[in-house]
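Chain A, query sequence.
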Amino acid sequence: MARGWESKSIESQIDDASRNPALPPATPLSEEDRQQQLQLNNLMLSRTRIQAEMQTACSARFREQLARELAFLDEKIAALAH
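Chain A, predicted structure.
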């Protein structure tokens, strides 16, 4: 009986996992590090949203406001990254 592509894919994944050594488990983050990572992710999402809005903004004043917000987010991201 012919095997479907799903079973072949699963078999391939199992073979790959058995050939490649497992990565060492990641150390758990402290609560402070986890909060910092969450805040950084939120800032990056906001930055992406503002960049998308800048591409579609028609008003020059609105684009200027978005540019100021983007600069502010870049400063916050840089502060958290260090």
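The chain is about 75% helix and 0% strand. Residues 31-56 form the longest helix (26 residues).
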